[in-house]
Structure prediction request, 492 residues.
Amino acid sequence: MAIGFLAGAHEPLRGQETSPTGAAGAVSVARRDNPFRQRFEQLLVAAPTRDLAAGWQLARDLGRPVAPLLWDMVQREEADVQPRLALLVAAVIAGGPAEDERLLRFLDVQKPMLEERTMAGLLMAMAPARSRPAAEFWRRCLGPVKTQGTLLPIAVRLAAARFPGAADGAPVMPREDAGLLAATAFAGLPVPPAVAARFWEGKGEKHAVLFWRGALLGAARRPEPPTAQDGALEHARLLRSAPGDALLDVRIDATLLLARARQIDASGPRPADFRLLEAMVFDVASAQRVREWLQPAPQALNEMPQRLAVAYALSRPTEEVLAARGVWGGERSIQRHVAIALAFRVCGGPSVAPIDAVMPRLPEWNFVRWASGASFDRGVDFEDAVLQTLAVAIREDRMTPKVLRTSLEEVLWRWGSHPGRLRLEQEQLLIRDLLLSGSDPGGGRFQPHVPPHARYLPTGFDKDHVFFTVAVQAYEFLARSAPPVPAEFQLR
Prediction:
């Protein structure tokens, strides 16, 4: 049994038939009057009824069976770039990472297609890391045009961060630009040492902060933890205490890197900003190092205490969390998050004695009891649909601890209390600020406190180009979605 909203778990739709031109061997649409085509035209193409978020959500809900239909609509939409981009987003969402090759085949033509290529880069950058490299990634994504500004090269470099082996064949940076340098460092591609040194110093280099963020996050996302020889660590130590609200993202990214390198503990003063404390607890080992700062009750002034509450449950022995249930169990803002985190731990940890204690006002407590070998209340219902499905499987003896553990981590991820979510959010903010925040649609939404002339805007399109109209909405849609936990963010 597997729980999760995975693309590809659908049967072919009526009105479709197999075709050798279908995406990755999937089903291809045969009829022009397919009712799903009509609905997608209403939501993604027709101006009076256009609702991009609703159309993309429909594509996600229906999944891979409608991907061929959407790709066919992309190919047929030749006149207007805005609906073509909206359809491209829908096709990629429906197909998911399993159909990367279909997207690359779409790009594998000798046409500039700057809007489509840049959108493809954004979509791949916002997706989880892949397990396999993409053949001829750079040639296919960048296309034939060599003087297309910096927007497309930045988007493709951000996408390259999601593919193993992307450093092979990477082109030389076309110019020294803060956004290009940030995307290059984030993807783990080489940056000329002299250029990097100048931007680390920051004097006279406009938008050097973007390079700092890209380099710090790039070092934090490497498969192996950074070592003392990693030059980014020294910069992280300096930037961790950088002053001013404008550098909060830099401080968070520096803290994430230091925590990843196991160079943070509770020996100093506790950070005043809760997001900095969240950056210290992105996995179990890092949470254990600062466990003294994590308490069973929400800390004063923390408006979103759920992530630190989960880190609390992961940072100490199960018995200690159980003993404190009279504290966290009475806090409505965190109680179910701690219960699910505790059940996750019991499922994957050493055997414990059956937990017979009851918490009648906390249905999620039943998962803790079942994971320990105690009974599961057969009459309790859950507001969360996934938890309800898991409960039914437990009652019908169709559940194993391994599957439950995976499913409960996905619940924490979807609720936003999974400690690994902060690093993903910081990566998404970097993508946003490199590609979108300088545009007219993005500036007011993403950086309203920054004067327009001070925002970074890559070259390639005017800031009011229709690309940004679609891209800003696509970013917002993807940033608030919660797919299954990407492998690189899973709790260990």
